[in-house]
Design goal:
The chain is an alpha+beta fold. The protein is 15% helix and 49% strand. The chain is built from 1 helix and 7 strands, in the order E-E-E-E-E-E-E-H. It has a 6-stranded antiparallel beta barrel.
């Protein structure tokens, strides 16, 4: 079953740094992001960390909206959807830089 989304998502690989480790986004929007991880946290878990890209590091607070476990024995990563509950002002700059690059490529 596909996950419900409230905002348009942009495919972009930003580095995600959480207490539980480092991962990369699959897609991102102003409301949150999906990330691939070796160990997915359960839904409703509160998280804090940062998104990094284009030489910027943007702090955020959020909660796990959904998660799908991976299989470490097959080196298969899981996924988590993180909904922002608080973001630094740099998130708008980070996403607008990404959008500008997409427009230039097309």
């Amino acid at each position: 079953m596909p996950h419900a989304r409230n905002a348009a998502r942009l495919k972009w690989r930003f580095k995600v740094v959480l207490e539980s480790g480092t991962s990369f986004t699959v897609d991102v929007s102003a409301g949150g992001f999906c990330t691939e991880v070796m160990r997915a946290l359960p839904p409703a878990t509160r998280v804090q960390g940062s998104l990094e890209g284009f030489g910027r590091k943007v702090p955020f607070a959020g909660r796990v909206a959904w998660s799908s476990p991976g299989d470490p024995s097959l080196n298969l990563r899981g996924r988590m959807g993180i909904s922002f509950t608080g973001v630094g002002p740099g998130i708008v700059d980070l996403l607008s830089t990404h959008s500008s690059l997409l427009r230039q490529a097309h």
